[in-house]
Amino acid sequence: MAEIAYREALRQTMREALIADERVILMGEDVGAYGGSYAVTKGLLDEFGPDRIIDTPISESVIVGCGIGAAMGGLRPLIELMTINFSLLAFDQIVNNAAKLSYMSGGQISVPLIIRMAGGAGSQLAAQHSQSLEGWYAHIPGIKVAVPYSPRDARGLLRTALTEQNPVIIIEHTALYARKGEVPDGDYAIPFGEAEVIRQGSDVTLIGYSGSVFQALQAADLLTESGVEAEVLNLRTLRPLDVGTIVASVRRTNRAVVVEDDWKFGGFAGEISATIMEEAFDDLDAPVARVCGADVPIPYAKELEQAALPSAQQVADAALKLM
Amino acid sequence: MTQLSEHAVPQDLDSSHLVEMLRQMMLIRRFEDKAAEMYARGRIAGFLHLYSGEEAIAVGAINALNDDDHLFTHYRDHGHALARGVDPGRIMAELFGRETGVSRGKGGSMHLFDVERSFMGGYAIVAGHLPLACGMAFANQRLGNGRIVLCVFGDGAVNEGEFHESLNLAAVWKLPVIFLCENNFYGMGTDIRRVSAVIEVYKRAEAYAMPSRQVDGMNVLEMFEATRRAATGVRAGEGPAFLEAITFRFRGHSMADPEFYRRKEETAHWRDLDPINSYRARLQQHGVIDNGTFEELEAGVEAVVNAAAEFAESSPHPGPQSLYEDIYAEEPR
Fold first, then answer.
1. Which one of A15, A162, A227, A296 has the fewest CB atoms closer than 10 angstroms to its CB?
2. CATH number at residue A141
3. Given an 8 Å threshold on Cβ–Cβ distance, is A62 in contact with B134?
4. Does this model's pTM top 0.80?
């Protein structure tokens, strides 16, 4: 068990995969000579050379499409799309090709492809570099969506993705890359569709994923001051979604707050909320609450950006209103 | 290899191969006529894009490749599948939406797949399959398996960003892929001359530093020779090649197309250049076939197409369990 940073957990896991399997290649913008926009791929070019660690043109659509085709052709491509904001230029490839080829071909084709991208806000990067669009990807049947919170998640989920026969999108969080945590060594993986009860409590369930787990945990600390014991769930994957763990927790606590950086309107928090309503309506003592990003493009100015993002205090306040 | 004169036949092809190409073109034409009939009779629904008039391209190009070279094509894909040897009965069954279809009835006319025959599919987002062809070529290059990729698309694709992204990437990485544009002058109902700054499509590929030429897409032997020459360089590791095949579709964009945008005279002009008639005449002129052979071929494709329709008609519809199958691949590989 070593304590390492989130980005280091990702790099180590990719490095092991590159050593273990000749079919694994890494492609993306500035993944090689530059070392990755968020330094996740630093040093890999030196170790594995330009045939395995491949700098691409700034052409998101053909980067992803090329990854899909290479996966169809027997390779196991790891694609880095720099950020989720740029993934929109590859949206057609992800939605119309990666997600549909198995089905449209009647099961003849599988696409064992991993697409990593950074999401989230908090670094004053303004509206075009600060989005949390993971709910859009979770909406699509045919792909799987992982959203690691901890270094442990980053390693465990990536290791599972590397054994998948299906396209997996891993959405990392820019604010988490430098955060450290304990990561088990060896053959350790986190299966998809298994949420983590990251803190136990009996009074309310706070549900988060990726960066929003951080706000939820802080809110749980705040709530203890009011005598409220919050349970915190770290979803870890959005598709498949671990409905069982969510429902079991709400049955114990009878209250839930969903926390998400993304916009509330039409967002994934609504999906979780509706699922709780469908599966655990009789166990609820209060309506499910949602604490989400403000319904605005993310602004640049620090105080405006902070006001647009969910805070621990907002989460705690929302929980107290349910009591 | 020199370009063929207008009336010659390639000396290194035996007559059975020359006749087989005529048979394939006739099969495609007859298959498409039957598909139109079945659409009119309500057996086929959705969009149905017929390849009639463009047969020389698929047959010439695909016969110039190895059987395990990969094909990616667009949604007007019946001709390419038939030229690759995909079972006509299973294609028709796919059009009928039956369980026995090549894609289990889940793809339909626009999404034929037969991976065993390296037929990697028909794609219905214009230019969306060009990046996949690059990726398959990339895998072939890495695996050193000697296989190349043929990627077919229409003139409508050349104004999509993915066209330019793909040509650039293929050239930079010297990928073993032949890009083949079927230029029939109309992107659905819009004349290419109204929406393209440069209407000679092959010139656009020249901007990406790859060998590129225009070919008579109504002439199967020219298509064969041009593709064979391109494939030689591509297979030798020289990087991608580009072919622009000039052609015309004899029918509307799809069965839903009333063709308000094309003049009857234009269609009539191109029908005079019918690729099957001209090839038949050439083979007869060289004594490769006679009228009797032609009639035998006609009877043969008629029987194949009728059997395909009967197979489709008698095939089971997909069961309800099929709805949730194939969304994810289950088996590790």
1. A227
2. 3.40.50.970
3. yes
4. yes
